[in-house]
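Handout, section B. The chain below has 248 residues.
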Amino acid sequence: MKLELNTVGIIHTPYKEKFAVPRQPGLVSAAKAQLILSPPYDEADALRGIEQFSHVWLIFAFHETMDKGWNPTVRPPRLGGNERLGVFATRSTFRPNPLGLSVAKLDGISIKNNQCILNLSGIDLVDGTPILDIKPYVPYADRLTDAQAGYANDAPIADMQVLFTDEAVTQIGAQHKKHPELRDFIAQVLAQDPRPAYKKNKTIRQEYGVKLYDFNVRWVVESDVTTVVSVIKDETPVALVSEQPAEK
């Protein structure tokens, strides 16, 4: 049986590319996003009562990888990217149906230019992700205190030390009025160490770059220390190392 799904909205997030997107929701609390509902689902009545909930579930499409098909086994980064598991035992993007599930904190609802907008945080979705459905998070049913999660039973350790050069601090400070959370956001993203698993044990100095919001962020990693060297406002993507395994 084939199903035809409609996009109920598009989410706009700080993550302009897959590299550096946290591998699960809630790991970067400073990640703010706006979900703009699409016609005919952009009626205020469709959101009536949702403000009573602190969090929402988002069902979305892996739109950047959906044309690549699926694999019966994948290599989860949590296992070092070497061990293979069945696709249904992971949250890989390469699935029989390119559907994902994510939970987000609901910070509020607004209407701008006759558009209904959900203001969210703790997002782990790339900018422009199509949202297929929205459901309220219900703690008594959705939070199972006795659940077990195999190889992913605990949250990943975000212990990468993140430093900022004086230049980066000045550049971030210039954006404080519009992005007061920018430094905390960058620090939370890089503390997760978004590098591919096969690069994490190398001690040589490496330089990376990614686009967050509309800033080109450059940093270097040496041993266990990340140093942000520049945060430049630019519409052109960074032409540096920019990669992330597709499996989450």
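Note. The radius of gyration is 19 Å. Compare this with the example in section A.
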